[in-house]
Amino acid sequence: MRERLAVSDAGQGLLALVALPELDVVCKARVPFRPGRLAFGGRLFCAESAGPAIHRINPETLAVERSFASAPEVEALLQAPNGAALFALSGGADSLQRFDTAHGGLLHVIRAGMHPRAMALDPAGQCVAVASGNDGNVLLLDAATLRELAVLPVGGAAHGVCHFAGQWMALCACGEYEMGSVVGAIGACGQWKPWIRLAGLPGAIAVCGGGLLVGHMQTLTMLDAPNGRVRWQTQIAGLPTQIVDTGRAACFADGLEGLVGLVELRRGTVLRRLRVVEPGGLAMV
Fold first, then answer.
1. Whole-structure pTM value
2. Of the residues 4, 133, 157, 251, which has the maximum number of CB atoms within 10 A of its CB?
């Protein structure tokens, strides 16, 4: 089966399946809500962009199969590696919820900072890290129970987090008006170690193609491990707020410009763009 990307468009109330690497729409469906963040791990889920609900979506037809209540304004949606649990990070309720994917039952909930913005699992799926927003922390939680393991201060409002080269990495805002970005590592003892300062507002961070791909205002920057050296930088029009690894390339959502783009990971060339009125979510299916 060819690789496909699920895309939600909150502005038009649409879900679409897009063939890769062409970015050709192969299937689309209108839904009766504003679709936001997406997650796939055997099942496809879509959170409402502002409302208090998550919907299970048929990954072939894009029809809504089941709906269940959640906290509002889901900023990130993530499935456990075994597909049994779904994590929903609410910026509106400052919380992280863990659901049973089979029935949508709420299993656990925990406060997760002040307008938390992103989360990630470690490679074993045992720990979930949360970029807790304006609190300026990364929270480490037990993935099975959401029990708090550590609160790790970072260099500013935390916008992104991922597990890279054996350690947790964070993307933070910096500067008097938070107009700059800092990427750094969290050491084994919990100390914050800034790697590099980048211009512009922070957007998203993800492990892609053996490197660390950072989206910040009008720029995509690829960093190498373990020293954080810049491999390449590519200028774009807006702010990449979501990044999904597709193998040799990565897809990014630009909420300011209203597009989904495909960037190859060797030199940073943007190969294709797909116009989307208001990109809400991306997920490989």
1. 0.95
2. 251
